[in-house]
Amino acid sequence: MSSILPVPESIAAAFFNDIQRPALATLPCALPLDSGKVSAGFPSPAADYEDRRLDINTYLIRNPVSTFFFPVEGRSMEGAEIFAGDVLVVDRSIAPQHGHIVVAFINGERLVKRLYQRAGRVALVAENQDYPPIEIREGLDLLVWGVAVGKFKRLPI
Amino acid sequence: MPIFALVDCNNFYASCEKLFDPRLAGVPVVVLSNNDGCVVARSAEVKALGIPMGVPWFRIREQARRHGIVAFSSNYALYADMSNRVVEVLAQFSPDIEVYSIDESFLDVSGFEGTGLAEYGRQIRERVQRWLGLTVCVGIAPTKTLAKLANHCAKKNLAGAAGVCDFTIMPPADLDALLTRIDVGEVWGVGRKLTPRLQAMGIGTVRDLRDADAETLRSRFSVVLERTLRELRGTSCLALEEVVPDKQQIICSRSFGERVHDLEALQEAVASYLSRAAEKLRQQGSLAGALTVYIRTSPFNPSEPRYQKAVTVPLPEATADSRLLARWGRRILKQIYRPGFAYQKAGVMLSDIRPRLRNQLSLFSSSRATRANGRLMQALDQINARWGRGTLRLAAEGLDKEWQMKRGHLSPGYTTEWAGLPTVKAR
């Protein structure tokens, strides 16, 4: 555990006199007291390879600011390997296109479907024979909310 | 020369509620203040019904039923998350940004004149709309005061187009005509108090104020109003405040969900407000030298006996230790508490706030105890930051918190809690 302690500017300046520090004049400066222990002997050969551990956030999420999560209910998307209990990763910054799996608001419901957009026809299509496609005709209020870019789930242990 | 863009979310709280709930499309929505007291945000549909801001909920409940108005308790976690996302998007458009409030930010957009500032404003609006589903208006001008006005014009459709209004390219004659149509009360910093006094002097519109005599205004009012006038004339006097200055006072107060009668419950409330205030104090790396505690009965119910009292004590040694502050809070409350009243609100204020920096010299000299206390508070904050506020708390704060806020119409934490995520149907 590293402890953060404010350090008087005079001391901080002595540490940082060779790099740019734009906010130092107005902000108390926090220094980790025990980051980077100095020890005698050979440096670790792995030191240059630190911070490479994989982060699932960066794998699943392209644009964090526009990304939202939606848990799935129901079985109509099983053909696309989206099952009840999966949590969809939905990114609003991607422009929805034909073939995308989308979260859509339609007639007061939140649905997950594949977007069909060809030859002037717009429809929301399920990935399961038991569920017919929803044709978007006049009078049907459709809002394509965002594009699903991934999914995740915790397993019981 | 700076050029400011004020970006402001339309009907922010209500829009956040609508964003995740498809049943609310086209439905009038209000958001209520703490304890579901007053209307603090209205959707466009509610504004169209003529329901004013700030009206007590119980007074419009009948009307709400008739028009199918849906009411929400304030879901601060949701609004804060969406607000942070908006700021993140805005930061892509300018490195210089001042977050002015939960739904308003100033951007310095000087240097982007090449694209056309109005076009830049439209790009901002488009990206926030697409990425976050929230509608913003953009006002662009050479001063912050004018940018606020330009934003007002964009919002009310008085000038500009598609939610963007750029004063920097407006011909002077057009701007004059526009400012003649706006009440002086709309000017940033001219409040409800000043408006009638200005009107009495024949200053009724923004243009009247801009063209008024600066000397007269300064002598009759203040240099602040004179500065406003110079800003209206296009001279920038207010710079972007990118760094939030440390708070000089930290206040934490709340109305109770139900009236509180006994000292015990008040003690719990005061202890937990103090915990929260002390946490804020530590966040900004400060110590408090004085502590105020106050309690009061409802000011609205004439049939109940009224009582209110506030007492401030200077602390023997400035501190940010929740436990020490709670102990002092207890002592003050014991003094000001009178039995037999129905208390409606309690609050605490930390003042005489100073940076811990100055006291920091004691790091190497002072007793082990002080240092240990500091580390204990640090551990407390770290645990609560990781596992959620209130995970670790003082026993004095109580366990069941009967006095807590009433939030009967709270929407789920759509973006802030796993259990609150909005489900989608695969059907």
* Strand segment tally of chain A: 9
Task: Please tell me the total number of domains of chain B.
Answer: 3
The CATH class assignment of the largest domain in chain A is: Mainly Beta
Count of separate DSSP helical elements of chain B: 15
Distance between the termini of chain B: 57 Å
* Classification by helices and strands of chain B: alpha+beta
Proportion of residues in helical segments of chain A: under 10%
CATH class of the largest domain in chain B: Alpha Beta
- CATH homologous superfamily assignment of the largest domain in chain A: Umud Fragment, subunit A
Largest sheet of chain A: 7 strands, antiparallel
Low-pLDDT sequence parts of chain A:
1-36
Account of the 3D structure:
The complex is a heterodimer of chains A (157) and B (427). In chain A, strands 3-4-9-5-6-7-8 form a seven-stranded antiparallel sheet, with no helix packed on it. Chain A has 157 residues and is mainly beta. Chain A has helices spanning 9-16, 56-60, and strands spanning 4-7, 29-32, 67-73, 87-91, 101-106, 109-118, 121-125, 134-135, 142-152. With 427 residues, chain B is of the alpha+beta class. Chain B has three domains: 1-170, 2-Layer Sandwich (Alpha-Beta Plaits), CATH 3.30.70; 182-244, DNA polymerase, domain 1, CATH 1.10.150; 250-397, 2-Layer Sandwich (Dna Ligase, domain 1), CATH 3.30.1490.100. Chain B has 15 helices and 13 strands. In chain B, helix 4 packs across helix 5 (117-132). Chain B is globular and about 65 Å long. At the A-B interface, strand 1, strand 3, strand 5 and strand 6 of A face helix 4, helix 5 and strand 13 of B. Strand 3 of chain A pairs parallel with strand 13 (424-425) of chain B.
Task: Give a short overview.
The complex is a heterodimer of chains A (157) and B (427). With 157 residues, chain A is mainly beta.
Note the topology.
The complex is a heterodimer of chains A (157) and B (427).
Chain A: E1 4-7, H1 9-16, E2 29-32, H2 56-60, E3 67-73, E4 87-91, E5 101-106, E6 109-118, E7 121-125, E8 134-135, E9 142-152
Antiparallel strand pairs in A: 1-2, 3-4, 4-9, 5-6, 5-9, 6-7, 7-8
Chain B: E1 4-9, H1 12-20, E2 29-32, E3 39-42, H2 44-48, H3 57-67, E4 70-73, H4 76-90, E5 97-101, E6 104-108, H5 117-132, E7 136-141, H6 144-155, E8 164-166, H7 172-180, H8 194-200, H9 206-210, H10 214-220, H11 223-232, E9 250-260, H12 263-283, E10 286-297, E11 308-319, H13 322-336, E12 343-355, H14 356-359, H15 368-387, E13 424-425
Parallel strand pairs in B: 2-4, 7-8
Antiparallel strand pairs in B: 1-6, 1-7, 2-3, 5-6, 9-12, 10-11, 10-12
GO molecular function, one term (chain A): DNA-directed DNA polymerase activity
Enzyme class (chain A): transferase
InterPro entries (chain A): LexA-like, LexA/Signal_pep-like_sf, LexA_repressor, Peptidase_S24_S26A/B/C
